[in-house]
Amino acid sequence: MEFVSAASRAALVLVFAAAVLGKTGNAESFRSFASSVETLGRVSAARAPVLAAGVVLAEAAGALLLAWPATYGGRLPALTGLLTATGLLASFTYAVARALRAGKRVACRCFGTSAGPVGPPQLVRNAVLLALAAAAAPGVWEGGHPSWQARFAAWLCGATAALVLVVGDELVTLLRPAPAAPTRTRV
Question: What does the alpha-carbon distance between residue 96 and residue 50 come to, in Å, rounded to a whole number?
């Protein structure tokens, strides 16, 4: 279980780090994210950038605290990071589900780049991330000391999972059949 927990923790760190980097890569990425926050969060245009900045800061804090080694500060930093990540994921899942239920078409700017609308793939991704948070919990709480080889392998597995989760929107778009072109009939 220690290996699964470490791999899950690594995946969460890398997914949140990719989200932060994608949203703050340039000013346009952040503006696009703030615009989607305005719609998903049901906040005014004036408050959306502030909420968006808070989300990015919380994601960065969650990633840093989850990556914090137990030898420097015990379990508290990683536990705080895990609770932060879980709270963010629950909030994101609620916002996406609410947008889907209301029939809103808003671009998913979760990683700063995707222009596709939020939909069931984001709900599935968030469910997988919440499951990873649950799988990471025992290792955060118990705080074992695996060998460097086990930690390295766990980070490789976590990086692979993070890569699939981060580019999942694009994968779904590529694998989804293209809509058929309308046929014209002559009368």
Answer: 19
DSSP string, 156-181: HHHHHHHHHHHSHHHHHHHHSPPPPP
Residue 71 — pLDDT band, cuts 50, 70, 90?
A: low
Strand partners, 117: 107
**Within a 10 A sphere around the Cβ of 74, how many other Cβ atoms?**
11
Closest to 7 measured CA to CA, from 153, 140, 131, 163: 153
The candidate with the shortest Cα–Cα distance to 1, out of 140, 101, 114, is: 140
Helices (H), the chain: 2-24, 27-40, 48-67, 76-102, 120-142, 148-166, 168-175
**Three-state DSSP class for 117?**
strand
Q: What is the mean pLDDT of the chain?
A: 87
φ/ψ of residue 144, rounded to 5: -70, 175
pTM above 0.70, yes or no: yes
CA atoms of 156 and 88, how far apart (whole Å)? 24
CA–CA distance, 133 with 105 (Å, rounded to integer)? 28
Q: Give pLDDT tens digits for 114-144.
A: 767 888 888 999 999 999 999 998 887 776 6
